[in-house]
Amino acid sequence: MTSIDGCHPSSQVTRRGEECRQRGFGFAVDILKREDANACLSMFERYEERLGGKPLSGDDRFKLHLLLPWVWALVHNERIVQLACRSLNTVDVWCWSSDVNVKERRSDAYFPWHQDSTYAGISPVHTAVTVWLALTPSNEASGCLQCIPNSQGRQLEHVEGHVQDSSNALSKQQEIVDFPDTIHPGQAVSMILEAGQASVHDFWTVHSSRPNTSEHRRVGLALRFVSAHAHKTGCRESATLVSGNGHGLFDEEIAPTEELGQAERQRHKQAMAKEKSNYLPDGVRSLTVKSHYCLGEQPEATAVLFIDLLISGLHADVSNPFRAQQYVNSLM
């Protein structure tokens, strides 16, 4: 693999990246010194205070690298970029998004079994990863991520609102209800991290996290990286090129110079509007579904077919991307 900024990936980064490609995840990668992680946590708490000191919600959680210079720096952190490149097996990499995940002490909030790929509109498989950076210790007591080995082979059906539960922290309360015989939740691995360490998982890896039963907050940054050789459906979005050639996959983003500055807020607002337009908000009347027909083993041989469906008049389940795909397949 080509070096990044003249530096070859460390053996630890190399191993974890290879683990991600082989079984869908890797963890306990040393990224920041403890004092640097504490400094990032302090800057995050300052961000919370500037927004009123209440739990963050909505757009305030996402694409923080456009609002906060210190998050922009983390997105470009050499070891994080190397981990993303090694996991994606390419030096051409974008940072698509960055979001903060907080579980308050003694919180009931949890993330059910799901895949990050479900609403991303990114293909083919294995062209996107999440690097999760812990700013506080993330362990079983505080509700660390759990990944199922070798579960990243394909997109699984997600059911929205299967059980009405306000503690479900996913935006659409989506979750995997029926598992194929090859995927066993009982084999899940807890990705335990110290502050300053990171994990990486494939967008198609099935994962979850339990409530925080500890007396300390669990705070982490989820950085979403996409190969420049991927395909992205829907409204054209913006992203930050962190390595190599972007191949025009996204509109390139601008670094923030002032924390929560007026220009930064405006660019963030525009970027979030584009991103949200691709996530099938309530009331949307049409749906673009992508169907892949692989002509051989090479991703480059994938033919992509776009079909516009009018949801009105069709079975309600077609509003679910997986059901829509099944409907399209039935027409072929």
TrEMBL record:
Transmembrane segments: none annotated. Its cofactor is Fe cation. Signal peptide: none annotated. GO terms for molecular function: metal ion binding; oxidoreductase activity. InterPro entries: Phytyl_CoA_dOase-like. This is Phytanoyl-CoA dioxygenase. It comes from Phaeodactylum tricornutum.
